[in-house]
Amino acid sequence: MPETKKIDPALLDRLRAIVGPSGHIDDPADMEPYVAEWRGRYRGATPLVLRPATTQELSDVMRTCAEAGVPVVPQGGNTGLVGGSIPSADNSEVLISLSRMNKIREMDPLNYTVTVEAGCVLQTLQQAAADVDRLFPLSLGAEGTCQIGGNISANAGGTMTLRYGNTRDLVLGLEVVLPDGQIWNGMRRLRKNNTGYDLKHLFIGAEGTLGFITAAVLKLFPRPKQVETGFLAVRDPDAAIELLASLRSASGDSLSAFELMPRIALDFALKHVAGTIDPLSEPFPWYVLLELSTGTGGDAFRETIEAALGEAMEAGLVQDATLASSEAQAKQLWFIREAIVEAQKYEGGSIKHDISIPVSCVGSFIAQATEAVERTIPGARPVPFGHVGDGNIHFNVNQPVDADTEAYLAQWDKLNEVVHDIVLSMDGSISAEHGIGTFKREELQRVKSPVELDLMRRIKATLDPQGLMNPGKVL
């Protein structure tokens, strides 16, 4: 990491000149949304926020900063959860946002691709695909604010990973400005290209530590003609995983989402978030929210699903179920999934874990982690939920009722270690989709092997020898 030093005011003037009057922010009040994480966990400082409008402007900015040894912090929509896009507090780094680089450069429905700039908001991209009868399947809670460049840099997951994969699986090509200002044009629209190292994968999931993603070629998919959404009560997490396997088989692998949630999560949402409904006639310990889709319409698809659920009920896996009969009802069911996230903040401190394990281990993990957490902090309230179709559990733990919030949150590292040890025993990951950033940087040193860490550091040193790209993040 470069030695901290004050940035020369003359250099800041040069950077302002590169991007022009509309491309920089230096008023402290106007910079506030850029230097603070939305949850309030991280806060930094910068003398200048730059908003270049073109790849060439960014290239000129990066070259100027590299020559002066000035670190830069890339930022997308600032919706991250690990402090990966927040500058340090010493005012030594320039923050760069690509929010002005938000154009869709090319829509190619016949090739099922879209070429888009990094600052494009995810929801805008989704709608642009829908307008040409195509689907861009990345979907997550922050999609109205997050930007596709940040999604790629963090290798975002979301609710449809089960069927379409993480962001990494949706990228065909990238345009990247390197730390020294060079532009790498890897914007190929090809599904097959075996011409050496696939360089784009170095930058996907690197959290802005190796280069600055400015544009991407992304895969599109056929828009589903029929979508079925269901809310089911299941016996327990093990039953949910058995159900997942049987539905994948029965539906021809048409499951696009499979979300697990416990009753405590629904109770929190019913208590704190207006508009939340309790879809079933009586309470059950565990629920699954699922979505299946097909490219053909008609009654046969729904009948197949109903038959598969009937068999699951006879087998004791499913205890009750409802399938949405309209798009409005489907939205009501999906609203529950978003509400359980919001509701937890009203129940005091919440210590969070974004982990993944093999899908077959989900039930065992939840049982072991729940027992370990309750033993470590008596009265703590585990709220395990998430995208179990791909093995991703958000194992959040709310404080005991009436506990002191500050004292509870002071045990964050201790509880992380307890939960992460169980994850590692199952060959899992301590970060399924949120990334490492600043938050999990030290924990990464504990869970990665010396060989892995050495390889990561060598890649960083090769591409960013001065250590100027998003310093202090990941490594």
Automatic annotation (TrEMBL):
One biological process term in Gene Ontology: respiratory electron transport chain
Residues annotated as domain FAD-binding PCMH-type: 42-223
Cofactor(s) this protein cannot do without: FAD
Alphabetically ordered keywords of this record: FAD, Flavoprotein
Gene Ontology MF terms in the entry: catalytic activity; FAD binding
Pfam families noted in UniProt: FAD-oxidase_C (PF02913), FAD_binding_4 (PF01565)
InterPro entries in the record: FAD-bd_oxidored_4_C, FAD-bd_PCMH, FAD-bd_PCMH-like_sf, FAD-bd_PCMH_sub1, FAD-bd_PCMH_sub2, FAD-linked_Oxase-like_C, FAD-oxidored/transferase_4, Oxid_FAD_bind_N
Family: Belongs to the FAD-binding oxidoreductase/transferase type 4 family.
Name used for this protein in its record: D-2-hydroxyacid dehydrogenase
